[in-house]
Amino acid sequence: MPHTLSRDNLTVTITLYHNTIRKITLSKARHGLKKAENTIDLFDDISAYLDGERVDFSRYSVDLENLTDFQQMVLNKVRQIPYGVTVTYGMLAKDLQTSPRAIGGALSKNPAPIVIPCHRVIGKHGLGGFAWGVTIKKHLLEVEGSIDSQPDVLSRLDD
DNA sequence: GTTCCGTATATAG
DNA sequence: CTATATACGGAAC
């Protein structure tokens, strides 16, 4: 049974298994949906994060069991990217001896956005993709001060 | 600005 | 195994 937190036009749902994060999904909040069950620590951390606090999510464990070795390698690497820092798909590819497309493919399987900060991986030219919509990716980067903040990003665009 | 190709990985048939 | 699809990058036009 997933927990839901909704604020700032952003809805976060979290599925836990014991003390491990199974899945996190992000979406634009729909009208009328704004109940928050802040029953776990992670919600406090995510809420603080969305307030612009420099939160460290490294203490949380994420279930990567059903991913390939390659995908786990990429995601574990991405967890090491510090707050407010962005790298490109190409930089990670060079580091891991693979191709930028392969990096993107692995990131698209990220089960826990924010906790595993795949939004900090961007294209050399544009933002790149984001499984939950590039608008949300842009929002997260603005929260961290990585790109210039613009008013009400999430309600401006669709996906 | 566009289009096209090389690349690595995953998935479907 | 072959074909197809990618959250890319770079060259060429």
Automatic annotation (TrEMBL):
<dbReference type="InterPro" id="IPR036388">
    <property type="entry name" value="WH-like_DNA-bd_sf"/>
</dbReference>
<feature type="domain" description="Methylated-DNA-[protein]-cysteine S-methyltransferase DNA binding">
    <location>
        <begin position="69"/>
        <end position="145"/>
    </location>
</feature>
<protein>
    <submittedName>
        <fullName>Methylated-DNA-[protein]-cysteine S-methyltransferase</fullName>
        <ecNumber>2.1.1.63</ecNumber>
    </submittedName>
</protein>
<dbReference type="InterPro" id="IPR036217">
    <property type="entry name" value="MethylDNA_cys_MeTrfase_DNAb"/>
</dbReference>
<dbReference type="InterPro" id="IPR001497">
    <property type="entry name" value="MethylDNA_cys_MeTrfase_AS"/>
</dbReference>
<dbReference type="GO" id="GO:0003908">
    <property type="term" value="F:methylated-DNA-[protein]-cysteine S-methyltransferase activity"/>
</dbReference>
<keyword id="KW-0489">Methyltransferase</keyword>
<keyword id="KW-0808">Transferase</keyword>
<dbReference type="InterPro" id="IPR014048">
    <property type="entry name" value="MethylDNA_cys_MeTrfase_DNA-bd"/>
</dbReference>
<dbReference type="GO" id="GO:0006281">
    <property type="term" value="P:DNA repair"/>
</dbReference>
<keyword id="KW-0234">DNA repair</keyword>
<keyword id="KW-0227">DNA damage</keyword>
<dbReference type="Pfam" id="PF01035">
    <property type="entry name" value="DNA_binding_1"/>
</dbReference>
<dbReference type="GO" id="GO:0032259">
    <property type="term" value="P:methylation"/>
</dbReference>
